């Protein structure tokens, strides 16, 4: 017997894939914290070289590149964070680092939008970061490029401009924890599954945006991610 639902299910959020008519359905969004040393320092903390750490965003946070999003409620310090996003395309649990690459479907450019004042307030009080990180339209993802079309992660440039002014500039070789390390480590705590996304951390240069600002970021070999900041919702 088919269960009847009191409310309709939440719509599936999906991302376009290079060369495909089919789209990549989002399952979960994992985010790696403090994965560039320069960014950790600008935030007033040191990186943890023992193991990476994570926070999550719900799939409803996903928004397509090119969108206009309203300035979010509850904040006066709304920040961009440009990131490489890993798209998982196979199931895996407790993987060895040497096997982690088998789970990667592809890569994309992403923006981890952040209510910085709420995040820092929670951090100071030793509380979770949910209000600062996990909110509607806070995970912007561009078209996914399948792994064979992108090649190996090396020294590709990662960058972000706001209103055509350069704000972030680094190389993927600056990542503290590489992609295989992250996937293998995360698989020790979760049964990774197709549709999972991993935001791998942001370089230094994060900062605030206001209504009317236009953001564009990229990683060499991937489709650029774009976002426009709209007015606050009344």
UniProtKB/TrEMBL annotation:
It holds the Pfam family FAA_hydrolase. Residues 29-227 form the Fumarylacetoacetase-like C-terminal domain. The keyword Hydrolase applies. It comes from the Bacteria. GO terms for molecular function: acetylpyruvate hydrolase activity; metal ion binding. The keyword Glycosyltransferase does not apply. Keywords: Hydrolase, Metal-binding, Pyruvate. This is Fumarylpyruvate hydrolase. It comes from Roseiarcus fermentans.
